[in-house]
TrEMBL record:
The keyword Cell membrane does not apply. This is Acyl-CoA dehydrogenase family protein. It comes from Streptomyces gibsoniae. SUPFAM superfamilies: Acyl-CoA dehydrogenase C-terminal domain-like, Acyl-CoA dehydrogenase NM domain-like. PROSITE patterns: ACYL_COA_DH_1 (PS00072), ACYL_COA_DH_2 (PS00073). Residues 24-137 form the Acyl-CoA dehydrogenase/oxidase N-terminal domain. The lineage of its organism: Bacteria, Bacillati, Actinomycetota, Actinomycetes, Kitasatosporales. Its cofactor is FAD. Belongs to the acyl-CoA dehydrogenase family.
Length: 401
């Protein structure tokens, strides 16, 4: 019996190959609920707050009632059963489609912050922190990158932790830490001075010696409250050390799981920019006709749609590998590398279609264009992803050091 054809009004214009029909009916309902929430509650706010470089704190209360948090984690969130990676990916795409900053806020809390405790903590620690994170009563953050250590932080981490009885004393600095100015707790990674292994610690808001300062002057992800954190004799109990983080290999596992979410966000940014350009091309009149009738405009739109369609197909197969439990680091690395590069092309072509209007915030596409630069770099630069994949396919590591 043939599969029923999904109604077209459920599908995005950019879903040229009808990928959303791969979701179950229940999953489609969740996706459409999220789409409505983002359109009605998030989209009206983003340009104002992007311009001010401030975070709309009222959004946190709205997210609490959305049911979006913790969908990927069995036993947590509104639905309790873990969502498929395909649904989780498409939800990340929907977030990116509306605004990359809000997608990043949510990804830091629901991905990096939540998964660090879910994977790295023992059951007692999960019970302590995750229920409130699942309802977004408490907001989390993730502190790995340092002022002098980005791609090389695995071997060059300068933040240290020293055990004194049942207490750990942390000293150092972290940079580019999303949500850190208002998070209720931050997962901080530091190198144990005694065994030289990286360990993870949950540092709660207000802890003496923990000082996050907002980074000013950003041209991308301006809504995200990135901070530079200084840690001066920060004392945390042994109970706050994540028991299953026993070295950087465990940190890399967190990144492996969350990196695919960044690729889905990048797909969303592509789609958001493409939709804006397509609508504008149909409405903007030049030389007496809509610019959508011009061959060169159609060429840019079709190339954009090709990037979207190819990226979406790759991410669907990645989600299948994740659901089957057989996906590896190089799988998520290739997805992040490829989709982020295609995103960069699409936002540039979309901005080009707007001409001079493309640099005005009121037309939205300028925001997508700027924010894409941050997504292109975070959770592993383009070059780091190629080195991960390159090592896999050649059997030779080209990493320095």
């Amino acid at each position: 019996m043939p599969t029923p054809v999904a109604p077209l009004d459920d599908l995005l214009t950019a879903d040229f190959y009808r990928y959303q029909t791969l979701l179950s009916d229940e999953e489609r309902k969740i996706l459409l609920k999220a789409r409505t929430f983002l359109r009605e509650e998030v989209k009206p706010l983003v340009n104002e707050y992007w311009g001010k470089a401030e975070f709309p704190v009222e959004l946190i209360d709205k997210f609490r009632g959305s049911g979006l948090a913790a969908l990927a984690y069995e036993g947590y969130g509104e639905h309790r059963a873990a969502a498929s990676h395909l649904l989780g990916g498409m939800l990340a795409m929907e977030l990116g489609r509306v605004d990359a900053s809000v997608a990043t806020f949510f990804g830091v809390h629901n991905g990096l912050g939540f998964y660090s405790i879910y994977y790295g903590g023992d059951q007692e620690q999960r019970n302590k922190w995750l229920p409130a994170m699942a309802t977004m009563e408490k907001i989390g953050a993730f502190a790995l990158t340092e002022p002098l250590g980005g791609s090389d932080v695995s071997g060059g981490m300068r933040t240290t932790a020293k055990r004194e009885g049942d207490t750990w004393v942390i000293n150092g600095a972290k940079k580019w830490i999303g949500n850190a100015t208002f998070a209720d707790h931050v997962v901080v990674f530091a190198r144990d001075v005694d065994d030289n292994k990286v360990k993870g610690f949950v540092v709660e808001k207000g802890t003496t010696g923990f000082k996050p300062v907002k980074i000013e002057g950003k041209i991308a992800l301006r809504i995200v409250q990135n901070a530079e954190i200084t840690l001066t004799d920060v004392r945390v109990p042994e109970a706050n050390r994540l028991q299953n983080i026993k070295g950087f290999r465990d940190v890399a596992e967190v990144l492996r799981q969350t990196r695919s979410g960044v690729a889905w966000q990048a797909l969303g940014v592509m789609i958001g920019a493409y939709e804006l350009a397509l609508d504008y091309a149909k409405q903007r009149v030049a030389f007496g006709r809509p610019i959508a009738k011009f061959q060169m405009v159609q060429d840019l739109l079709v190339k954009s749609l090709g990037n979207i369609t190819a990226s979406w197909g790759m991410l669907i197969q990645l989600a299948r590998l994740q659901d089957q439990g057989i996906f590896r680091d190089e799988h998520s690395a290739l997805a992040k590398e490829f989709v982020a590069a295609r995103m960069r092309e699409v936002v540039a072509w979309s901005r080009e279609i707007f001409g001079g209007n493309g640099i005005l915030l009121e037309y939205d596409v300028a925001r997508f264009f700027s924010d894409a630069e941050a997504l292109y770099s975070y959770e592993g630069t383009h070059q780091m992803q190629t080195l991960i994949v390159g090592k896999s396919i050649t059997g030779h590591s080209a990493f320095v050091g």
